[in-house]
């Protein structure tokens, strides 16, 4: 099945089983554990499979419900894996952003030093020209 189809189709598969149960199929009581974020119990597949001996639940519907349930569980595990990956990448991104800020600060400092060196170079050039002009005047006098 495709990426998102499992979670979308799973409620439909369990809906068929619920309709069959309402018509008089056997009801199982016991732990009703819900998977985080899912709208149907994980043990429903096992319970429905155990009820498969009853003529009110067809094996084809049990097969579809199991397929849809497993598809939904796979989709949910993919979502959890994606979330875990984002949580792992978040600190790395923070470190990279911090290093980027430090590099930007260093580049800014280099630009300031370059500006100061250019000003100093211009000042040295003016002093050189002034001394050169004084030499010429001294030789002429």
Can you tell me about this structure?
It is built from 3 helices and no strands. It has helices at 5-22, 44-50, 59-140. It has one domain (5-140). It is mainly α and 141 residues long. The chain is rod-shaped. α1 runs antiparallel to α3.
Summarize the structure.
InterPro entries: SMARCC_C. The chain is an all-alpha fold.
Offer a few descriptive terms.
disordered N terminus, 141 residues, rod-shaped, mainly alpha, single chain
Number of strands: 0
End-to-end distance, in Å? Answer: 101 Å
Structural class by SSE content: mainly alpha
Helical residue percent band? over 70%
- SSE string: HHH
Number of helices: 3
Write the layout of secondary structure elements.
Layout: H1 5-22, H2 44-50, H3 59-140
Helix pairs in contact: 1-3
